[in-house]
Amino acid sequence: MITTVSSRVEVMKWMEDFVADKYNELLKSVEDSWQPADLLPDSRFESFFEEVKNLRERAKDLSYDLMAVLVGDTITEEALPTYESWLMQIEGLSQDPDSPWMKWNRSWTAEENRHGDALNRYLYLSGRINMREMEASTQYLIADGFDLQTDRDPYRSFVYTSYQETATNISHRRVAQIAKKQGDLMLAKLCGHVAADEARHAKAYKSFVGKIFEADPNEMMLAFEDMMRKKIVMPAHYMRELGVEIGKTFGHFTDAAQRIGVYTAHDYTAILEELLVEWKIDTVTGLNEAGERARDYVMALPNRLKRVAERMKAPGLEYKFRWID
After folding, report:
1. Residue 201 annotated as catalytic
2. Residue 135, phi then psi, degrees to nearest 5
3. How far is 181 from 35, CA to CA, in rounded Å?
4. What is the pLDDT of residues 230-261, one digit of tens each?
5. Which residue in 115, 172, 237, 252 is the catalytic one?
6. Which CATH architecture has domain 8-311?
7. Which pTM value belongs to this model?
8. Which one of 69, 158, 188, 224 counts the least CB within 10 Å of its CB?
9. Is 12 helix (H, G, I), strand (E, B) or coil?
10. For residue 4, what pLDDT band results from cuts at 50, 70 and 90?
11. What are phi and psi of 129, to 5 degrees?
């Protein structure tokens, strides 16, 4: 354990070589990456209209809740400018364009950018979505921003990204599974590709937190506890539709996700349990009294959350989204 590192800025500087290694391990080159055009009908070919016709036929059979979740996921992905600007402001991350941190942020953003493009294009071709309404929600979400309660703290920020990227992986993977069951293999493949990206990103951010625990275990434990007390909010928590108050639509979106099992309170708890194991929280050393109390809190939290989740029931289908005709 490094004992001379006394500030977050120093820890972020110390981690640069580690981040450079993770860049090569957990991000793909442009040449090796999938692109939305690989997964959807190509307008250059005569077969385009027939392929779109078949896509629309398959989309007709997708359930209302699945379409609502897919639109919400797309809007979340399309708000990428907000997420990149937030990451660029985290304290201690070198602003040198050639630094490992800035290289990571740019390349992470570049990979994420394909997700909204692919999902948006599918929804446009499906014929089931009022694209103007969806686009207005995306504009709202970018304009309204978000409040993740991380401030500019790298420790809290990387707890958040570890959690959120894992949740996004679960959501896209489940949408892929449901789409496959409902007969849309193209959508299933598309969402599967997005989910695989999110899994790599989650692995990277979890490794960043693990490395911080080596250098500054007490402060990292306190940051972990603080984020769990506040609760991890999803980046689209301000989601709204035209004529709807800020944040109101997000609740209906999460209701739909819970009804079809895309992302539930049980998943939130399962992610926490995974992080406790990933970061070996029960064996972390170098904690003071406050750090030990923080450890006790996060270790006990899953059982409390499970009791709450057991009492929760998603409301029935009762909301009409403006996005869906």
Report:
1. yes
2. -65, -35
3. 24
4. 999 999 999 999 999 999 999 999 999 999 99
5. 115
6. Orthogonal Bundle (1.10)
7. 0.95
8. 188
9. helix
10. very low
11. -115, 135
